[in-house]
Amino acid sequence: MMSATSTLAMTHFVTLADTFDKDKVTPGVLGFIVFAVIGGAVWLLMKSMNKHMRSVDFEETPEDGEAGTAATAPRTSKAPKPKTS
Description:
By secondary structure, this protein is mainly α. It has 2 helices and no strands.
């Protein structure tokens, strides 16, 4: 059961919601600023990620003192180049 205060509050909110024109509501300057800050943060994160990814060495290097020289020998053979005629 609703009290008199909550009923009165609901009637004021309903009439207030009817006064807004749904075609004219825009996010405004604050929405643009928030969107621009998020876009700038994503750009900076992508730039940092690319810098860190370039410094990663994907080739495994053998540690000193490992047993088995055949298993730790570096790979020197490369795929053959395609022939062009």
